[in-house]
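Appendix B, record 7
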Amino acid sequence: MKKIQNKETQIVKKENIFPVEISEVMKTSYLDYAMSVIVARALPDVRDGLKPVQRRILYAMWEDGLRANSKFKKSASVVGAVLAKYHPHGDMAVYDALVRMAQDFTLRYPLVEGQGNFGSIDGDEAAAYRYTEARLSKIGEMMLKDIEKNTVDFIPNYDGTTKEPVVLPSPLPQLLLNGALGIAVGMATNIPPHNLGEVVDALVYLLYHPKADTEDLFRFIKGPDFPTGGEIFNQREVIQAYSQGKGPILIRGKAEIETTGSKTQIVIKEIPFQVQKSSLLEQIAKLVQEKKIEGIRTIRDESDKEGMRVVLELQRDVKPEIVLNLLYKFTDLQKIFYLNMLALVDGIQPKILSLKEVLSYFLIHRQNVVLRRTKHDLEKAERSAHILKGLVKCLGNIDKVIRIIRSSRDREEAKKRLKKSFQLDDIQADAILDTRLASLARLERKKIEEELKNLQKEIKELRAILKSPEKVKEIMKKELLQLKETFGDERKTKIHLEKIKELSKEELIIPEETIVTLSAGGYLKRINPKNYRLQKRGGKGILGTKTNEEDFIELLTLANTRDDLLFFTNSGKVFKLPVFEIPEAQKTAKGKSIFQFLPLSPQEKVLALISLSKKEKPSFLVLVTKNGIIKRTSLEEFKNITRKGLFAINLKKGDLLKQVKKSSGEDEILLITKKGQLIRFREKEVRVMGRQAAGIRGMRLKGEDEIMAMEIFSPQKEGLLFLVSENGFGKKTELKSYRVQKKGGAGIKAMKINEKTGNLISAQILTKKEEELILFTKKGKILKTSLSSVPKLSRSARGVRLIKLDADDKLIWAMAV
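Structure tokens (predicted):
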């Protein structure tokens, strides 16, 4: 021993100990570990498509005689055999791999047949290995066919006590049939399962057309074929992913809309691969609870041994297509499978492979198996023929053979004398001595001669195969087609050529009526009208929103969740906001500040709201101010409203925009004042103007009167005008009671207004579809009552009481729905 002095420390050096940099040790050790994980644990071999643990399980079961037609054996014995002989890792790693190979919802063609609880698609775990039993499935047994014929190489096991196969003969490309999932160091593989019949057809084609590309092979392999079924879209994108060896594949579960009478339900019959049914149901329930998906009444799992059936019962008046699209968007009913065909080539090199490369490597492997099997059979046949030739020589002179054997002192002398007399070698002489006396009869001799003749014929055929690549191809083709005949089945996953249309946010919104309110303090919200129960006319109403003395509901409009809402401000600008972007609130909620939705200046105030449906095709917007100024502008000028807004009208000083309505160009217009005056004139009297125009006089007002409302209607549809005052009085009057006049006049009396009734706050032309009346008060109370309780009266009548108001409360809005 000698000491070596270093600048910083002393290192004691023995005969075989040398100083090294720790960084080098770490680097080398990590690379060794990484390669061990990649090659010996995580990645499958492209030839048999198996990871080492899977290969060892199958080989151990084959060694123990657990064939497809044998009795089941405890999984614990399989795990024990694998651990004892081949796999120096944990027992759960082995059992988990065994369980996976037995699950028909994980593998397209399970390699192991299990008995007992091997888990479920709900995510239930398998029972412990002491409770379950297993054996090879028929296709699993086929993986090892001819392994005893020197078709693959064997290497020593981890402790050198026995040998294990480097790869299995595998007559089918398991890498594609059952796919693979594995995470190594710095890389991962994710290969989907495929249909056996399609894969065989592609292999046969490639066997005779080696220059074929991936697109050619897609004449046979349509794409993944998952054990759980489902649907795949955009085959062009799928082909591209398979050509590159990686890429996204969009998969969907199979869901159908069923309608029986008034009941509509969505039935999920298949789910995407690797999705747990229980997790999917939890996702749906959570989304329903959070109101991200609306319209689902109940969720039932009716799955049984016949198959999957998850029933989502829908509420009435809900479009099932929208609910289904929401399920696709927000749950695992639709997901992306990221293809990454990474596998080991030559047992050591990880490589991303295209579809053609995977099939080509398998064909090379299969060709080697056929050649090695043929050589093994040839050698065996030649040995047998050699022995039979010796037997035939001796059988021609049986008496001499018997004399030599009887006159010899022992077996060795008899052997030497036979070799000399009949020109035999050791093998042939031993065979003669081992032959039973009964076999020397004339009948047996004929059998031996016939057997030799057959062997010579077989030897000739086997030699011809080894000399002819075409004969090898024919054998490979024949065996592949036989496997297709035995194990082939129908495709489970449906392939769609077209690409899924990306749905807009609006298309994912369930269309339903909603009330949008804006308070004087600038708080915006929308409320579902169904939240209000029906009451009798004249009641006090219920609290509909939280307000205080400084804030109250100022603007309301009825809209659809798929509409666009236009906000007109005191600066003459107009802003646009989709209704669905306004969060639905409880009836007592305050709402959210409008400044969270629109880029308004602090001094800017919204004066009018109007909803525009995307289905409607109105030609114009008609705007009216409180001072009676009216303006008509083409709707095209409001088509592209930017986030910053557009100018809609040039307001005069002291005037405010009061209301905005849609028109067709052939309608009639009603202007109603808060003091009960009304004027009716034709729309064409108001010429079309640009957005920045100020407008013209529509009605002459008296004193402090101002425009309260505007109604636009088709003259062919004479109906009823419904008026409501701020103190809760209302009535219906025939429209024909109001004659058509010229614009700009003072109009006629529409309703008797006095101190008891208060000023008018609402006017609406009724159609036959309205059945209910919703009233909003300044203090946030809401009354929902039957519209039929409101009588039809003359135009000079004051109406009947609709709601009982507190002394300091007023009605601010009324709407018949």
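Remarks on this record: The chain has four domains: 21-189, 254-332, 372-464, 511-816. The CA atoms of residues 197 and 484 lie 5 Å apart.
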